[in-house]
Amino acid sequence: MACVLAHPGFWIKEPQLEANWVKLVHAEQSFDLSAPLPPEGEVLGKFRITGVVDKGTQTGALMYVEKSLYTGAGAFLGNVNSTYFLRGDGGCGSWGEPGAELPSVPTHAPTGSVDVPTSPLAALIYRLSGDYNPLHADPAVARKAGFDKPILHGLCTVGIACHSLVRALCANESSRLRRLGARFTRPVFPGETIRTEYWTAADGSVQFRSLSVDRNEVVLDRGTAAVVA
Question: Could you tell me which of 176, 175, 168, 174 has the C-alpha nearest to residue 200?
Answer without folding.
Answer: 168
